[in-house]
Amino acid sequence: MDRMDELTKKAKELASAAAEKAKDIAGAAAGKAKDIAGAAAEKAKDATDTAKAKLAIASEQREIEKNYKAIGEWFVSEFRGEIPDAVKDVVAAVNASKARIAELTAKAQENVEEAKEQVEDKVEDLKDKAEEIKEQVEGKAEEIKDKAEEIKEKVEDKIEEIKE
To answer: Is residue 114 a contact partner of residue 129, using CB atoms and an 8 Å limit?
Structure first.
């Protein structure tokens, strides 16, 4: 039995050692998982910070463009006729665009006026046609009235003949 007790004791020791080793490995794995989760959270924070920074940069770039536009408009209005050679082409392109916008606006207004005239002409044509139809209907109504009067007289004459 000693041998059996000794084997049992050895098995218990091995099982205990294996359990301790498993705990150590599980603890190390949990630690690694915690480290990885922490690193992932840090990376997510970094990505959020990067996105916020890019958004702020884009906002500042829009502000710069707005301010450059204001400077350009001031410059052009301030130095009419004295535009430096370095920006003459740009100012000419802006002026050409403004002239094109004015042309397009005038053309659009012309189209609106033309369409308005066409609609007004059509309305007048329809009014004329309606008046013509009204006159025709009145004429036919008058003819029918005259015919009805003739028939009435004939009927009355027949009634008188029958009475006599």
So the answer is: no
Q: Per the domain annotation, does 107 fall within a domain? A: no
- Asked if the structure places residue 120 within a domain, the reply is no
How does pLDDT run across 137-148, given as a tens digit for each residue? 888 888 888 888
Q: Kindly report the CA angle at 136 between 135 and 137, in degrees rounded to 5?
A: 90
Residue type, 125: D
As a whole number of angstroms, the distance between CA 164 and CA 148 comes to 24
Helix, strand, coil shares of the chain as percentages rounded to 5? 95, 0, 5
Query: How many domains does the chain divide into?
Result: 1
Please write the tens of the pLDDT for every residue from 116-136: 999 999 989 898 888 889 888
Within 8 A by CB and 6+ apart from 75, the residues are: 87
Residue 66 has pLDDT above 90, yes or no: yes
